[in-house]
């Protein structure tokens, strides 16, 4: 079978391709023919060699959908022919995450899914929602489940509340859909009129172009009659934390995605304490969370927004395109 591995070059498409022996399932294991994968910004860091703990020669990517082709002794959850989706934390089954579960991230610290056949522990995958095709299902493990946490954390979204999402990446657009399904009002920031139009088409109440209005927190305050947002999806790496805090209403929750960049001139802890704002780092979710999200996706018939689909021979093109960071939604690659 064909497998892709990081080559240590530091390029966004720095991979080598080789033919390797296809794996056989052991006790409690299944093998899955990968039909599609989706890309996350974490994957670019791993391939470029900037992710802590990553290594040259690793099979990258965490998110995939595929068909079970064989099962080993003791397998009870799946059988050949089943459609499944990988999990971002394969050892996090339910409840709070453990230190041991945090150490195993496919495509980052252990072998990933950018290969034609992958061997999984049976509990490391979940059934794919029936209404989604392979590429759509492949978008779920990281971005969708992270967006789902907006609804299921210690301060769930309630009908009529105001949710602010930043940009048009996968997490923000999934959070938008889930917030709308919960009856919330959604405001978004973006960088272009074309993206603003598409966001409005997805049910966003108002869009602020942060290139035209750099101090967008003031504009969002104005749009909400001075109230501010009840929930904020803070991308972190965009250097927007201080504005997110200024956007938040009293008692709001800021949901951090990624890692905060750039120290604001005022200590964020002081700003948040003054407003009674909760600051919460979202870390994807457990297998149990994934199953709950998939039930909601199926009940609501929600489909992920996909920016572009690439074919089996376009892995390198997909990575270069994704590195441009101009997409609206997810970028996916059909492997078979």
From TrEMBL:
It holds the Pfam family ADH_zinc_N. Residues 1-10 have a biased composition (Basic and acidic residues). Its EC number is 1.1.1.1. GO terms for molecular function: alcohol dehydrogenase (NAD+) activity. InterPro entries: ADH-like_C, ADH-like_N, ER, GroES-like_sf, NAD(P)-bd_dom_sf, Zinc_ADH-like. Residues 10-333 form the Enoyl reductase (ER) domain. Keywords: Oxidoreductase. SMART domains: PKS_ER. Residues 1-24 are annotated as: Disordered. PANTHER family: PTHR45033, ZINC-TYPE ALCOHOL DEHYDROGENASE-LIKE PROTEIN C1773.06C (PTHR45033:SF2). This is Alcohol dehydrogenase. It comes from Aminobacter aminovorans (Chelatobacter heintzii). The lineage of its organism: Bacteria, Pseudomonadati, Pseudomonadota, Alphaproteobacteria, Hyphomicrobiales.
């Amino acid at each position: 079978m064909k497998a892709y591995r990081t080559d240590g070059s530091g390029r966004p498409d720095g991979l080598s391709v080789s033919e390797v022996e296809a794996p056989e399932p052991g006790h409690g294991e299944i093998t899955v023919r990968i039909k599609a994968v989706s890309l996350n910004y974490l994957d670019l860091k791993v391939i470029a060699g900037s992710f802590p703990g990553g290594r040259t020669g690793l099979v990258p990517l965490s998110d995939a959908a595929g068909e079970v082709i064989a099962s080993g002794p003791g397998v009870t959850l799946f059988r050949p022919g089943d459609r499944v989706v990988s999990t971002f934390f394969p050892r996090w089954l339910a409840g709070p995450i453990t230190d041991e579960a945090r150490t195993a991230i496919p495509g980052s610290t252990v072998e990933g899914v950018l290969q034609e056949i992958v061997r999984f522990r049976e509990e490391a995958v979940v059934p794919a929602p029936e209404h989604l095709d392979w590429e759509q299902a492949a978008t779920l493990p990281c971005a969708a489940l992270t967006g789902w946490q907006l609804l299921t954390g210690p301060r769930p979204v309630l009908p009529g509340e105001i949710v602010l999402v930043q940009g048009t990446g996968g997490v923000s657009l999934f959070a938008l859909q889930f917030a709308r399904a919960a009856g919330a009002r959604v405001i978004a920031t973006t960088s272009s009129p074309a993206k603003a139009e598409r966001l409005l088409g997805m049910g966003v109440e108002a869009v602020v172009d942060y290139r035209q209005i750099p101090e967008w927190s003031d504009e969002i305050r104005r749009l909400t009659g001075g109230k501010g947002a009840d929930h904020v999806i803070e991308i972190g790496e965009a250097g927007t934390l201080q504005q997110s805090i200024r956007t938040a209403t009293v008692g709001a929750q800021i949901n951090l995605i990624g890692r905060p960049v750039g120290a604001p001139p005022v200590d964020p802890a002081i700003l948040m304490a003054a407003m009674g704002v909760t600051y919460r780092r979202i870390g994807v979710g457990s297998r149990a969370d994934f199953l709950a999200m998939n039930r909601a996706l199926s009940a609501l018939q929600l489909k992920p927004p996909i920016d572009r689909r690439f074919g089996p021979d376009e892995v390198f093109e997909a990575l270069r395109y994704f590195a441009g960071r101009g997409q609206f939604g997810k970028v996916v690659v059909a492997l078979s």
